[in-house]
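Appendix B. One record, verbatim.
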Amino acid sequence: MQGRTHNCGELRLENAGQEVRLVGWYENIRKVSKNLGFLILRDFYGTTQIVVETEEIMDQLSELNYESTIQVDGVVRERSSKNAKLPTGDIEVVPTKIEVLGKCRYNELPFQINHSKEADENIRLKYRYLDLRNPEVKGKIVLRSKIVADLRQSMTAHDFMEITTPILTCSSPEGARDYLVPSRNHPGKFYALPQAPQQFKQLLMASGFDRYFQIAPCFRDEDARADRSPGEFYQLDMEMAFASQEDVFAVLEDVLPPIFSKYGIYKEASKPPFKRIPYLEAMDKYGSDKPDLRISLLVQDATEVLADCGFGPFEGKTVKAIIAPEFKGTRKVIDKLCADVEVQSGQKAYWFRLDEKMELVGGISKFLQDKKDAVVAALGLKAGDFVGLTAGDLKTAQKTAGVLRKMLGASSDAYMKKDCYEFCWIVDFPMYEIGEESGELEFCHNPFSMPQGGLDALENQNPLDILAYQYDLVCNGVELSSGAVRNHDPEIMVKAFNIVGLGEEDVKAKFPAMYNAFCYGAPPHAGIAPGVDRMVMLIAGEESIREIIPFPMNKNAQDVMMGAPAEVEERQLRDVHIQIVKEEKEKTEE
């Protein structure tokens, strides 16, 4: 019979002499002789040493594979050789009886449980239930649970009501591909899994709810990255009625820093108010709309002094410079730095130095000798300065400089304060942009955002000059969230979509519920949705988001443990009126 008296992380010296029952996994055993061995028993809470002192129990264990689950009845006693590193290191249990509860039928494990993080990632994901037995891996999931619980508690304390929104909904242009679900009762029609609860939370505001939140599942058919899980992710979704941008900022600036300080690997987090940086300024000074403010280096414009220096890649281009004082990198280090920038950005980086004799040396310095004084003065150089350079059209030069800044910052503690969480708001995003793929005018961020200046701006300004009440929350160079003051006026909404080529009938067809609801008098409202997965990844100090998700997919959006995606039976396809048509590969003559 089960019914443990204690868990494996609980027993202490004051329990000595007590009869106890423990249950858990048979982690390993160190055999000293045929009637003496030291067994480690592990459960969710920790480990306890079991000292086997009879030949009978040793024989029983010799027939048992590691990772079997067992029940141990025995007596607690003080250890003669204590282990100060373990909470239970002062005691051991001498068993009187061991019972097998769940036998492991494999002699060999796919990896050692306590070293599972060293195994190939796909093997870890295939045997995730074993990977999660590793206390280090399991600890990240426990951490996630605690963070989510605290987020819920804090949002409730701020008078937000938790409301769940539908998972089966209609396809909506959120910026990524939808996961589609065929309808059995409506042939040829499809549901879509929500990329975000965007429309539903705005409809809740129109319904008269004042403050909404949920830990919302979101589904996007997009490729994996280190900070993005394919398929499914979770966000702290929130919306506020009769609210401004500053109201949203005030809530998150009160909710997030205590959680980062409490659970984070760094105990220091930005105090409110967080720094507010307009989008154009962020691109100009940091080369990124996700700036890592722990890095002290800034991007400077060097176009005027360097564009006509005779160096081909600079001619007629925007040139950006980053000055790194006393950078000690060797030529080999600099070459690798420039190569890494090119790999990440697709653009080349260039450089030169001002040495201790105030001479320009290395890199492209030979093109600058005739205008040395002008270069030194324009960039404010001092002896020992390293100058990294990028060039191209404005956006290309900025983005490449942002990559270079990040890499230079990470190269030295002199440029980066690493042991803290630095938050900032990126504000005043452009309402529209020219799409890189389409070459046409598109919404820059969220199509439901309120333009700054309202209807007048839409009617009288160049669309590319219109700013929106849109904002991103950034922490340590990672975008945690996007949000906006919402467009709650049907007239302004129709005009905003007109500018990208959609008429009023298109708006009514694509967003019928929202358009009609707003026609009945909607409150001004604003919201945001920080990503829970990214938040936990930052707090835990992990490089990969898969480490903090209980059952993640691999980089190819496959669940190798469950075998998803998988083929289904023909009967199931008929039920939803789907036929699989396989494309025939064209035969080419050699």
